[in-house]
Amino acid sequence: MRREDIDPRFFGDRLAYNRAVLVEQPRRWLVVAGHEARDDEGGIAAVGDVRGQLRLTFRRLEETLEKAGFALGDLVQIRILTVDIEAVTAHYDAVLDELAAADCRPASLLAEVRALSDPRMLVEIEGLAVQ
C-alpha cells in the first residue's frame, strides 16, 4: 500500500490534518463506527470534561482498531462530532497529542451537532482505517 498526504494543514507548527489522503492498493479497510467516552461498565465517563472524553474516546478507538489488527496510525479519515465546538477547539491539543503519538495524519472533520445519542456525551469520533 502507498499512502500520500495531500495538502497538509498545520496549527502552529503541528500537523492538524490533511485535506486528503491518497491510498493506492490498500489490502484491508476498516470502517469504524462512532466511538464515545465509555467506561469499562459501558457508562459515559468524564461527564462535563471535554478533554477527558476526547482522550478516552481515542483509547476506545485504539482498542477497536487493535481487535481488527489495525493501529491508530492506520486511520486515514476521522470525523469528530461534538455538541460544543468551542470546548473542543479549546482542548484540540488533546486531539493533536493523540494523533502525533500514533503518527496518524488523517483527513478530518470537526463539526458541531445539536445532540448525540446520550446527553452526557460531548464528543463522538468515527473513522476509516486502511492497510
Automatic annotation (TrEMBL):
Gene3D superfamilies: RutC-like. InterPro entries: RutC-like_sf, YjgF/YER057c/UK114. It is an enzyme of class 3 (hydrolase). It comes from the Bacteria. Keywords: Hydrolase. Its EC number is 3.5.-.-. GO terms for molecular function: hydrolase activity. This is Enamine deaminase RidA. It comes from Streptomyces tendae. The lineage of its organism: Bacteria, Bacillati, Actinomycetota, Actinomycetes, Kitasatosporales.
